[in-house]
Amino acid sequence: MAKILLADDDADIRDIISGILQKEGFEVVLAKDGNEALDLTKANRPELVLLDYLMPGLNGIEVCAALKKDKETKSIPIIMMTAYASEKEGSLSAGAIDFITKPIEKVDLLLRIRSVLKVKHINNELQKIIAYIEELGK
């Protein structure tokens, strides 16, 4: 199943969410701060990043913006997580595809992840079709 990078500075939250994801069959890569999230995303190429808004070092907005500027990671969808609903606009402006507020409900988390991954899969297939059509036109 899909590889997900989970970045949160709270060890309890990392444990709870990674447990939920692993039980659902996802491979989980854990990061404890923004700098580690950036490095591990580049090294592991996850299909999705779950990113805490407030973290030491680089915050979630900074990590999101950096990933979206990098040609190698810009297509990785990011779901921002925070306890503050007021941070939704900033998260989406930085490039996050979705936003989830804490405390996170298991059903909501899994529905959002599956939805984002489904859209990513459809987009990947569309890109293959476009490339094929362009090749036929040459």
Rg is 15 Å
Report strand %.
15-25%
The CATH homologous superfamily corresponds to Response regulator
Q: Which CATH class applies here? A: Alpha Beta
Q: Spatial order of the strands in the main sheet?
A: 2-1-3-4-5
Helical element count? 5
Please report the total strand number as a whole number: 5
- SSE pattern, N- to C-terminal: EHEHEHEHEH
Shape: globular
What is the count of distinct domains?
Answer: 1
Give average pLDDT, whole number: 93
> Largest sheet, described in full?
5 strands, parallel
CATH architecture term: 3-Layer(aba) Sandwich
CATH topology: Rossmann fold
Low-pLDDT sequence parts: none
Distance between the amino and carboxyl termini? 36 Å
Helix-strand category: alpha/beta
